[in-house]
Structure formats: C-alpha cells, structure tokens
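Marked as duplicate of an earlier ticket. Keeping the data here for the record.
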Amino acid sequence: MSSISIKRAGNSVLVGAFVPAGSRGEDPRVKGISHFTEHMLFKGTKTRTKDQLKREIEQYGAYFNAYTSDEVTFYYINIASKYADVARNVIEDMVRNASFPKEEIDNERSVILQELQMYEDNPQLHIFEIAQRAIFQAESGLNIPIIGTRETLANIDRDKLVDYYARMYKNPISIEIGDVEQTEAQMLLPKKFALATANADRSDLLVPRKGVNQANMTLTGLLHFDDPIRAYHDLDLYGGVMSGFTGRLFDTVREKNGLVYNVSLYYQIFSCGTVWYNIYAALEPSKIEKARKLIIGELTRPVSTEDIEFAKNKILGQYNLYYDNKTEVSSIVINSTMNHLNYAEILSNYEKHIEVSAHNLNRFIASAQFDKSKLVAIIPEK
C-alpha cells in the first residue's frame, strides 16, 4: 500500500486509508455503490467480525469514521499515539480483507435508505440534491447524489459489491498524521475525468413542498480552472471576502436588510478543474427575488485592497487552526492529491499562494459570471 506520512506534534495520530474512487465513476444503474461499500467495510473482515472491529478501536477511546465523496472514499481512526499499530492493523484489514457478510447487506441497505430519507426530509440538505440534479449534465457522473437513489440502491447486491471492491480497492493509499516519520515523496494521481459542463437551462427551478413555511434557496453554477492550484487559493480568498460574520453576504443580506438568519457560500473543487458553487439562504418566499439581487450584487462587485487584506488575514488565521487539526490536514492532503497538487507545497507555502491570488481576485470575479447563476428553491406548497 502506498503511503503518505506527515509529522505533527501531539499525543495522537490519525491513521487512515483512501481509495481514489467515489460516486462519479459509478455505473448509473448502481449509483451509490461506493457509499454502500464504505458502509459494508465496517461489517467485518476475514479475520474480524463487525463487533470486533468496533471494540478493538473504541476500547482505547479512539474515533473511527469514514466518508465517501464524488471522487474518493476515506477511512480513518484518530487514536492515542501509543496505539497507532492497532489502528494500522484494523484499517489495513478493512481495505484489504472486507468480507461483505450476506446477512448484513439488506440490513445495511435499509440503513442507507433511512439516511437518504433523512436528507430528503430536511429542506436545508435536500436543496443541494435538487441543485445538483439541475446543474450537472448526466455524462459528468455528478448529477445524482453520492448516496444514490431508491432505484439504484435496489439494484446493488453482494456480487456487485464484491466485484466493485475487488476492482476499486486494488491500490489504497495510507495516510498517517501525527507522531510519525514524515515521507518526502509526493503522490500525483492521473486525471480520470473531463471537465463537467452545466446544463444549458438556467431558468429558475421552484419546487413546492408541504410542511415548510420558509423558502430554502440556492444560487448555483459551475466554474472552470485550467490551473488547480489557482482554483484552490482564489476560491479560499473569495470565500474569505464573502463568508463569515464579516463577509459581504452576511453583512448585506442579513445585517443591512434582515432577510435571513444565515447566508453561506459553499464550493467544491473536482479533480477535472470544475468547481460547483452554491450560495444558500432560507427566507420568506416573497423575499427570494430581493435576496437574489442583493447576493448577485455582492458576488459581482469588485473588491478593494482593504477587503482583500482583511480576507487574507482572516483565512490565514483559519488555515492555522486547520493546520493543527489532523483530520483537517488529512482533507488537505487527500484533496491536493486528487486535484494533482503537491500537498507539501500547500501545507508549507499557503501564504505565498494566497498573496498571488490577492493580486488577481478582481480578475477572477469579472470572469466568473456569477450573474448567470441558476436559482433553485424549495418553496411552501400553497
């Protein structure tokens, strides 16, 4: 197993492994199989039952978790440094020797269906699924959420799970962050996907729903970058200008106009150079149009030198907090590796790259065409 090790002070170590496989590369007929596989790896291996897996880690007070994204699946344990070998053994056993007990599969399918229902029942979460379906073309592999659908989950059986695991888990990559010997080698994975293009229809999508009083809206769209390191830092700096209590969106939409409790900018960078962005707000349905105009106004308005300096200092401070959190560092390493960036360069020279982005931020704003964002909203059914 290839490995990445990063030395960090402290009494704990993060031990994990990831595979460069997620929902984006799945057969549309079995969408959700990456996430289903993630669940099944906690159900036992050839040498451990599911109860043995859990007890072996939790007896030391460790934190044991995993996640699946569009392009990667990651398993990790945060544990006291003296028990690092226990975590290494368990993680390697899971990614190498999962057993996929037949009696667990239908039960776990039911669990995942409940997870799907949980997202659908919450308009603050479901709005992003609706936006994802509306903005991405089917050929991108990104138009269906990571969890899949009821129909695709019904198509997944043990044979398909075992076959997927055998194909996609051939070369897991281990990550260790903490009291470990640091590796110097950089791992750059080959590009697998072409740029994702947006659906041509930019008309508003309003989805009526019973049982809600607020509208949950997002302004969504795609951006494209030839240089992934530029995307990474330009968006961080832009987020610093727009987000948080001192951000333009909060100040204008909430503080000055009282339209929302919160308004937030989210973005996701894919390995192909495509960025999916959303600006989310919950508000009275009659105020959607006013909020849209205010948000677009702030997204497209040039920023001053003072704005940029304040945002730069803010996100450098946030980065220092991330830098001390081993789970956050693992995310930086994985995202850098998947996006063909040198994670050591990101970790050690973040400030230098942010300085470059600061000189180009208004150029980025002018080219992004945020005024063409698609409005997607869940609104109360009349």
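See parent ticket for discussion. The chain has two domains: 2-178, 205-380.
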